[in-house]
Amino acid sequence: VILDFSDRHILAKSKALTTHDDLSRGIHATLTALPTSLLPQVRLVSLSTTLATNAIVENTGGKVGALLIGFDAYDLARIAHYPRRVVPGRIEITGRIVEPLDEDAVQAAISKLCEQEPVDAVAISGMVSAMNPALELRAKEIVQSLTDMPVVCAHELSMQLDSIKRTQTAILNARLLPVIAALLQHVRAVMDTVGVQSPLMVVRGDGSLMPEELARQCPVETILSGPAASLCGAQYLCDADDGLVIDIGGTTSDIALLDDRQPRLARNGVTIGQWSTDVRAVEIETVGLGGDSAITLSPRGQFSIGPRRAIPLAYLAHESPQVLEEMRRLWEQRNTRSTLIQPVEFFRRVITRMPHGLTPTEQATLDALQDGPLSRDQLAGVVHVSDPSLVPVVAMESHGYLQRSTLTPTDILHYEGAFTSWDRTASELGLILFAYYAGGTEDALSEQLYRQFANELARHLLHRLLSTHYPSLSGGENTPERILLELLIGENTIDRLDMRAQCQRPLIAIGAPAEALACLPAHKLAAQLIIPEHADVANAIGAITGALTLSVEATITLDDDSYLVHSPHTRCAFTSLEEAENWAGKHVRLLLHERIATYKVEGITFSHDIHVTQRTGQMREGVLFLDGRVRGIAVGRPASTLA
């Protein structure tokens, strides 16, 4: 989107499909679709991204060596990362160094990492280093004197005491450095091509923005950047105080809550897969339901939707019209086809180079797809297997070598006329084939699948609302919770018992298929449905309307009669709490001004504030000081929005 900040008016918008093999093609396609007369006037660019989240889930990114200071066997057992090296050095809980860093061991560890297990970056984490970063900082100096690899320190990303979380956050950050660097390089190259010369921002997982340079240093903070931007975009478009927000995409749908005009954040950092981190990010539930969810027919005649993604038949035929002829042939041979396969399945190759390690049959399958998509039946004939079910596509699909195409909710929308961007005939033929093998009509099946999609979406929406108060709520198959959820949305009934949900929050639906797919779920929850104008580009709107936020934090603890201030740079002791708070406030303000100067962005005006909080406990003798926190926050916005 191109947004005029002075009057909140959207001047232009465009969309293009992600091109995973070369990100710059998709970026170029969407920017060049915008009016060329407006592009030179752009003064600020911001983007959200799912690359960090996807890289963690898919276990991709750079190879990281972990240098761990003072970790014992118990703590090491909780960190499932290799390669790693452990060196001596220990800090007690007050931040006092009780065992100095073994600098010779650091040098030896890095030399071995470089020689025996070449890595792309080094992550350094010390036990209790949040209370005193001295050992991590010295280790970083030594590593940087020996190699030019990027070095990440855990205390630079988190000042929380949980050493395991801080370590995992640092490792992930180091692993994501090349991922985000490549994305930003692509974006910058396309910006230059189309004549956009402006600062570049990236959305954090909490919806705030950070400058390009900071994103390159701290890519882990972009975890859940995409969902956060969508949530902020929904709030901006609706000007909503609160709401239940759903972003319906192609592969998944993201569900989150707005409270007091702000995204609700995860309480203790975000967890992605097996990685628990200290990253501040939106509290979100992602479900494998979207416009491109694969519809599957079981041998017993039952349908499932998702979580696997598939190319809609309508889109495949739009790109490759020859598939229509094959679908008509599948209909003609419907009584003689294998009963072990889906009614309609096509596959297309999505790589330009032949991968290694394939079996001869897998190699033949990819070769057969060189000139365009083929049905499973066609592939069976080419690779000479006895039944189409034996065509070896599963492993190659999981590795991203090929993509499956079958019936999807997008095809249902094409059939019903609610969304007709591509080839409706392909959707109709696919639905006819599925209906035949299920023993019904295409009209009845279309309505059945639409309602099934709506029921599943409504159940996940309700689960998101309830799990806020009941975190252990499972909603799994055949559980009491699942039965309750089905009763509340009217999917199931019990004699003489009527239970219906009455959602007091508005349901704000965004994403391209929102208007077509959100109406029935909203009805089942008895919720007001809001589909804002420009819902299809809410993510981009959220990306550019967020605030650029920089922060610095220090903590204050009590050790005997001394008040200790712990910051990312130092540790100091004071005789009174007042002295500690005053010094910490000045120190944090100084560090914050340094960050503002470092990441100063043209056209951005900053306001900043220092927040001091204390935790106390009630004792018989009076109030006991537990700890304090001094946090400096600088918020920057385009000058034109401050009037």
What would a concise description of this structure say?
The protein is an alpha/beta fold and 643 residues long. Helices cover 37% and strands 23% of the residues.
Give me the secondary-structure topology.
Elements: E1 2-4, E2 9-12, H1 23-32, E3 45-47, H2 51-58, E4 64-69, H3 73-76, E5 84-87, E6 90-91, E7 97-99, H4 103-116, E8 121-126, H5 134-146, E9 151-153, H6 163-194, E10 200-203, E11 209-211, H7 212-217, H8 225-238, E12 243-248, E13 253-259, E14 262-263, E15 271-272, E16 275-276, E17 284-287, E18 293-297, E19 303-309, E20 311-312, H9 313-319, H10 323-332, E21 346-349, H11 360-368, E22 374-375, H12 376-383, H13 394-398, E23 402-406, H14 409-416, H15 424-438, H16 442-467, H17 480-488, E24 507-510, H18 514-517, H19 519-524, E25 529-530, H20 538-545, E26 548-559, E27 562-566, E28 571-574, H21 577-598, E29 604-619, E30 622-638
Parallel strand pairs: 3-10, 4-5, 4-8, 8-9, 12-24, 20-23, 24-25
Antiparallel strand pairs: 1-2, 6-7, 10-11, 12-13, 13-14, 13-17, 15-16, 18-19, 21-22, 21-23, 26-27, 26-30, 27-28, 29-30
Helix pairs in contact: 1-6, 2-6, 4-5, 8-20, 9-15, 10-15, 14-15, 14-16, 15-16
Portion in helices: 25-40%
Note the overall shape. Answer: globular
Work out the helix count.
21
Distance, first to last CA? 22 Å
Largest sheet report: 6 strands, mixed
Mean pLDDT: 89
* Uncertain runs: none
Taken as a percent bin, the fraction of beta residues is 15-25%
The number of strands is 30
Round the Cα radius of gyration to an integer and report it. 28 Å
Q: Output the structural class.
A: alpha/beta
